Structures are given as C-alpha cells and as structure tokens.
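Reminder to self: tokens first, then the designed residues, so the page reads top to bottom the way the pipeline ran.
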C-alpha cells in the first residue's frame, strides 16, 4: 500500500474535487456543531475559520452577527461555497493554514469537524497551531473539534465499504454513500514520529442514480490522522505556546470521554 506521508496538496485537491459535488448533501444537514459555536460566540466577535471548506460553519456564524474570515487551501471547496459565503458577508481567503499571515487578530479561531486530522506530519500540526496562535487577539480562544479515538482506528484488518446513508439530491437523483477506513502500515517517509503516528486511508464512494436509471460513481480515497487523544493534543498545544482551558466530548459540551468527539478550547499559554 502506498505511503500516506507521500500525500501531496495536489493529491488532496484531486480527492476534494471528487467529494465537492456531494459535500453539502453529505454534511449540510449537520447542525449540532453550528449550534455549539453559536452558543460560544456573540454578535460582533471576530472569527477566523481555518479549513472552512464550503462555509458550512462560516455562513451561520456570520448570520449570527460575527465578523467571519473563512480560509481554505482547496479551490474545489471554496468554489462550492464562495457565493454563499460572500452573500453572507463572509470574507473568503484562499490560503494554507500552515503558513497563513493575515496581519490581523481574532477573538476566536476555529478548526472544525476533524479538519485538523488532515494534517499528517507533526511539523504540519505544529505549524497550523502556531498560525492560530499568531492570529489570536488578547484574550482570544482557539477551538479544535475532531473525532475521538475509536477501537477500529488501530485495527489492522482490511475494512470493507459500508453504506452510511441514502439521500435524494436536489437534482432528484438518489445518492448512496459508502465508506471504509483502513489503517496504513507501510510508511517509509518522514521522521520516526511521523512514521509512528496512526494514519488511516479513508474511502468515500458516492453512487448516484438519476431518474433515467443512469448510475454515476464517484470514488475518493485520502489519508486521515486517527487515534488523536487528549494527551497528545495537550502536548502539541504546549509546543505551540497554547494551553487547553476546556475539553469536551461532544457538540452539546458533555465531558470529554463521554462522546464521540474531542473539542478543546485553548488560549495563549500564560
């Protein structure tokens, strides 16, 4: 199996071009994290979202009264939501969260919905956290939301595609999404820490059947950092001169360990 540490930004963009047409159908109905962010923000606050994608979080935060800047490196994802974001007065910036320099400060920086897990190397994780710290206003906070570790994150057996949902698209087509996760065990790039970090290959398959019965299949495969726990994130934050002040286990802010998410709210280390 190919080495995920060879994965490039071009590889990522090719995968996102496959996913983009189905992204809103897949994730557009997800609102629990939106409600969490509305509860944690107030109108007038300056919000920077890193890895904003199509604006699923940025648009409702702007409608909530926040001044939102949405940053993403993917042309495919920004193209999907740019008109919607601009109509909501979201400022859209194409940029890389690892080296962004806006020369501005924000009350809240958000890395939402497992976006942080797309950073596979330790140096990239630290670069993104340091970007967030540079853009924090005095008293500002960073919020990161990712998938909590699961037993099958480190299961070495080959995983088969499993159906996740079947939904009707705006076009009238019926779309079925199947997905699988398979632990990567063949890595030779990077330093010893990079090679030791658990990374899985994620496969998304979208099968669309239109009203004439014609089937269109879209298949995307990409690597994702998995099994990222509280202790490891606390160490990454400390190396970036940040400290976690609140930890939660779900979007309704239950204690960490009692849900399928990990959410940290961090601030500059004192």
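Designed residues (270 positions):
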């Amino acid at each position: 199996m190919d080495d995920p540490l060879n994965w490039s930004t071009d590889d990522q963009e090719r995968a996102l071009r496959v996913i983009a047409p189905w992204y809103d159908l897949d994730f557009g109905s997800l609102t629990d994290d939106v409600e969490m962010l509305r509860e944690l923000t107030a109108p007038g606050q300056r919000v920077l979202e890193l890895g904003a994608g199509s604006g699923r979080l940025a648009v409702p935060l702007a409608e909530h009264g926040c001044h939102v800047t949405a940053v993403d490196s993917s042309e495919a994802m920004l193209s999907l939501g740019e008109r919607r974001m601009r109509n909501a007065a979201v400022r859209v910036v194409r940029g890389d969260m690892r080296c962004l320099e806006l020369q501005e400060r924000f009350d809240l920086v958000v890395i939402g919905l497992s976006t942080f897990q797309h950073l596979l190397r330790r140096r990239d994780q630290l670069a993104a956290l340091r970007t967030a710290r540079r853009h924090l206003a005095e008293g500002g906070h960073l919020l990161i939301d990712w998938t909590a570790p699961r037993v099958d994150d480190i299961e070495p057996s080959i995983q088969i595609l499993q159906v996740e949902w079947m939904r009707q698209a705006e076009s009238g087509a019926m779309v079925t999404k199947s997905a699988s996760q398979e632990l990567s065990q063949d890595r030779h790039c990077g330093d010893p820490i990079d090679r030791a970090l658990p990374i899985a290959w994620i496969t998304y398959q979208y099968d669309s059947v239109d009203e004439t019965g014609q089937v269109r299949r879209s298949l995307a495969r990409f690597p994702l950092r998995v099994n990222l726990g509280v202790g490891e994130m606390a160490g990454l934050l400390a190396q970036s001169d940040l400290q976690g002040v609140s930890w939660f286990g779900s979007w309704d802010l239950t204690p960490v360990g009692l849900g399928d998410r990990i959410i940290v709210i961090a601030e500059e280390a004192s």
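Helices lie at 9-27, 32-40, 58-63, 75-87, 122-134, 192-196, 230-239.
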